[in-house]
């Protein structure tokens, strides 16, 4: 289980701390008290995408966290990890994942009473089209399946030489989530996605998701029991600046900085344009 943050600034590049202030980022970093299994970021600046991942929590990797949040950028997605039970703390499992200049980070455990998705036999991966995937992470299986569906869609449209459109991302996600939900209807597929032109936030989970006892116990241990009931919510807000530019931000729930932001509805995709920070809500359902 993880925490997610997405950031887009229109106009000349601005650092996340300049645009958002310390409160949002400092509180997000403090969530590493629970989400201790590493963190990562994918950033876009002048159409150049870069990434950084670590197996150290954001709280103890503070030098890099500060350095990467004070540099001027156009957009970014961040991820703080609390690994699903039984999933190793390996660098290749750290998020965000990147494929063909698309970044992807997920919050959720994909499993059921039969166990985590990674415990399914190889033939199951083959049926998903992932017979060459050797990952040992449920989030990576979700990401690889999305990347595969997005690539196939772009090839069918002969659009693979340009960044994916918002509709292509929406369609690829819709197919991917529907396919995984068939076997894992109670899983959370909340995620954030970074491309050259858009930053996306996805809210997709069961109609009445339940937090595990493991999750509730851990939040109670650090005195945050009151931060758990809205765990699967994603909140968003646009900040206007005196120079006419705008900053849009999306975040996991769980801390005071996002209490008064708008809530993204379940089974929807929020697409934020890098050109002007305009946000559009799209349905993931066909």
Any chance you could write out the topology, listing elements then pairs?
Elements: E1 2-9, H1 16-20, H2 22-30, E2 39-45, E3 48-54, H3 62-70, E4 75-81, E5 97-99, E6 102-107, E7 111-112, E8 115-116, H4 122-128, H5 138-156, H6 166-183, E9 190-194, E10 198-203, H7 213-221, E11 234-240, E12 246-252, E13 262-263, E14 268-273, E15 279-283
Antiparallel strand pairs: 1-4, 1-12, 2-3, 2-4, 5-6, 6-9, 7-8, 9-10, 10-14, 11-12, 11-13, 14-15
Helix pairs in contact: 5-6
Explain the overall architecture.
The chain has 286 residues and is an alpha+beta fold. It has a single domain, classed as Glutamine Phosphoribosylpyrophosphate, subunit 1, domain 1 (4-Layer Sandwich), CATH 3.60.20. Helix content is 27%, strand content 28%. It has 7 helices and 15 strands. The protein has helices spanning 16-20, 22-30, 62-70, 122-128, 138-156, 166-183, 213-221; strands at residues 2-9, 39-45, 48-54, 75-81, 97-99, 102-107, 111-112, 115-116, 190-194, 198-203, 234-240, 246-252, 262-263, 268-273, 279-283. A 7-stranded antiparallel sheet has the order 3-2-4-1-12-11-13. α5 packs across α6. The chain is globular, with a radius of gyration of 18 Å. The mean pLDDT is 90.
């Amino acid at each position: 289980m993880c925490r997610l943050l997405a950031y887009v600034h229109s106009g000349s590049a601005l650092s996340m701390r300049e645009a958002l202030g310390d409160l949002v980022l400092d509180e997000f970093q403090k969530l590493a008290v629970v989400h201790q299994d590493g963190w990562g970021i994918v950033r876009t600046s002048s159409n150049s995408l870069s990434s950084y991942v670590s197996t150290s929590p954001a709280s103890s990797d503070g030098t890099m966290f500060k350095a990467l949040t004070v540099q001027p950028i156009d957009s970014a997605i961040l991820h703080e990890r609390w690994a699903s039970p039984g999933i190793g703390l390996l660098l290749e499992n750290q998020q965000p994942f990147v494929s063909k200049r698309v970044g992807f980070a997920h919050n959720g455990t994909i499993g059921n009473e039969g166990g985590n998705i990674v415990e399914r036999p190889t033939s199951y991966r083959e049926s998903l089209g992932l017979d060459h995937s050797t990952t040992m992470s449920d989030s990576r299986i979700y990401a690889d399946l999305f990347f595969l569906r997005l690539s196939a869609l772009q090839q069918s449209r002969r659009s693979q030489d340009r960044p994916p459109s918002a509709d292509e991302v929406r369609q690829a996600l819709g197919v991917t989530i529907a396919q995984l939900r068939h076997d894992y209807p109670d899983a959370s597929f909340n995620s954030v996605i970074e491309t050259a032109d858009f930053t996306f936030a996805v809210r997709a989970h069961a109609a009445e998701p339940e937090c595990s006892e493991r999750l509730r116990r851990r939040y109670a241990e650090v005195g945050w029991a009151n931060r758990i009931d809205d765990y699967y919510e994603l909140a968003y807000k646009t900040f206007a600046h005196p120079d006419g530019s705008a900053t849009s931000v999306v975040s996991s729930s769980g801390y005071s900085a996002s209490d008064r932001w708008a809530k993204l509805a379940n089974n929807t995709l929020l697409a934020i344009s890098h050109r002007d920070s305009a946000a559009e809500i799209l349905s993931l359902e066909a």
